[in-house]
Amino acid sequence: MTKGQKKLFMVSVVFAAVFGSVSNVNAMHIMEGYLPLGFCIAWGIVSLPFLAAGFFSIQRKLKENGKNITLLAMSGAFIFVISSLKIPSVTGSCSHMTGTGLGAILFGPGAVSILGVIVLLFQAVLLAHGGVTTLGANTFSMAVAGPFLSYGIYVLCRTCRVKRRAGVFLAAAMGDLFTYCITSFQLAIAYPAEEGVMVSFAKFSGVFALTQLPLAIVEGLLTVVIMIALENYAQPELRITGYLGNEKL
């Protein structure tokens, strides 16, 4: 392990120690027992193809270069820590960041689906954060939909020659917001209002918007900070993932 990698590892340990221990976690993954059984099964089935693709994606990336495991593990830890932080909402609910944009940018959305479902399972079992029956729904919103949008926005920004760090910010922030749009849709179709599903969707998304908009901005900025740290201390690893070319920073 190089000197730069040791510094990055120590920063990660401190970050996890400070923010990783959260008490009474009830943030807005859909909680255990909240969705009807049919919806739980349906979202689980919808998520399965993405998880299968993600498994093969990770397998391929590790086969290409075993050193990818370091950043993969860090991306998973980042998702676990940042999505475990409970942020009270003025509307009486709770919100949290997702952390999936970082992994999606580095490894693509497929790999993040596996990282996300592992994190969600651990949180459901160990922290009572989310639930086992709602694992499929939470996986689709946080580990599938959000990362796919983050990756798409990042690729679009690179194609349009938007500055790299601006692209990272937009990808992480918009992926966070999209996760909550999907969660609101999942709740809306499970519990439609008398006026229809769209009215219910507007109500659920309105509940989250007050806290989630600033949280998305914070997540975007935090992801940029993490990327700057990686650019300073882990350039070889970033080049392996394809995030960096041969340019000097």
Number of strands: 2
**How much of the sequence is in beta strands?**
under 5%
Helical content stands at over 70%
What profile does the largest beta sheet have? 2 strands, antiparallel
Report mean pLDDT, rounded to a whole number.
84
Q: Which structural class is indicated by helix and strand composition?
A: mainly alpha
In short:
It is built from 9 helices and 2 strands. The chain is mainly α and 249 residues long. The protein has a two-stranded antiparallel ribbon with strand order 1-2.
Structural description of this entry:
This protein is mainly alpha-helical and 249 residues long. Helices cover 73% and strands 2% of the residues. The chain is built from nine helices and two strands. The chain has a two-stranded antiparallel ribbon. The chain is globular. The two termini are 21 Å apart.
Question: What are the SSEs and their pairings?
Answer:
Layout: H1 3-19, H2 37-64, H3 68-83, E1 87-88, E2 94-95, H4 100-107, H5 109-126, H6 135-159, H7 164-190, H8 197-233, H9 235-241
Antiparallel strand pairs: 1-2
Task: List its traits.
249 residues; mainly alpha; 9 helices
